[in-house]
Amino acid sequence: MERIEHRACFGGWQDVYRHRSETLGCDMTVGVYFPPQAADGPCPVLYWLSGLTCNEQNFITKAGAQRYAAEHGIIIVAPDTSPRGNDVADAEGYDLGKGAGFYVNATQDPWAKHYRMYDYIADELPAWVEADPSASDARAISGHSMGGHGALTIALKNPGRYRSVSAFSPIVAPSQVPWGEKAFGAYLGEDREAWKQHDAVELVKSAKEKLPLLVDQGDADEFLDGQLKPHLLQAACEAMGHPLELRMQSGYDHSYYFIASFIGDHIAHHAKALRAG
């Protein structure tokens, strides 16, 4: 691995690394914030999954999360959103291909060769992170939009793996909205039953662990009614008795201004769960 950025930030360090991913078959970049407490011993880790069009830079430069991570002693790992490279398949538009991995393992050509973001986030990346002595094996996961979908589904599919999960403006039912239908049709094929394994609304129905879900959603979000549909997750959780705190935030949209406004709440939520473990 190669450290390509190293910047002092709130008493800790905001780094960016480049490493070879065997899972994805390409080089990947990932942002890692080390709080000051990491100099004295292992710290728990919060994985942040970003949304469509993003890479590792969006969260680390716009969310203002380092301040709160330093306060609570949490490492934040912010990976890229898709495989990258000249030989990686891509598509026209912003919602398929590079920058739009959707945190699934593609089964269809030409995507299957590289687009294995589920395995990368769930297995390869934590193994790489936790090999560092400053990181403990206590994990939490969060994300925004497509990344909120990824955080919810990966946590629901891996009971006991994460101590907490949260999301901003998540795509809660990708099987039922245009973004998800386009991506899942391309990556996973036309069998909609296979899509359900990456759909938070469907996964809640069979979840083996009642891990509480924290979701913040702006009521002025331009994608609220067409792509996000948080009421579907609320209905599924109510039907199954799955704990959900859905906070509709008045006046907020889909942007990083929204994330920056409430990221402190989310990191405090994760810190509480990580300490309790």
Write the layout of secondary structure elements.
Elements: E1 2-9, E2 12-21, E3 26-34, E4 43-49, H1 56-62, H2 65-72, E5 75-79, H3 117-130, E6 135-143, H4 146-157, E7 165-168, H5 178-188, H6 192-195, H7 200-204, E8 213-218, H8 224-228, H9 230-240, E9 244-249, H10 256-276
Parallel strand pairs: 4-5, 4-6, 7-8, 8-9
Antiparallel strand pairs: 1-2, 2-3, 3-5
Helix pairs in contact: 2-10
Protein described:
- 35% of the residues lie in helices and 23% in strands.
- The chain is an alpha/beta fold and 277 residues long.
- It has a single domain, classed as 3-Layer(aba) Sandwich (Rossmann fold), CATH 3.40.50.1820.
- The chain has a 6-stranded mixed β-sheet, sandwiched between helices. Strands 7-8-9 form a 3-stranded parallel β-sheet, sandwiched between helices.
- The longest helix has 21 residues, at 256-276.
- It starts with a strand and ends with a helix.
Question: Which short descriptors sum up this protein?
Answer:
single chain; 277 residues; alpha/beta; Rossmann fold; 6-stranded mixed beta sheet; AB_hydrolase_fold; hydrolase activity; serine esterase
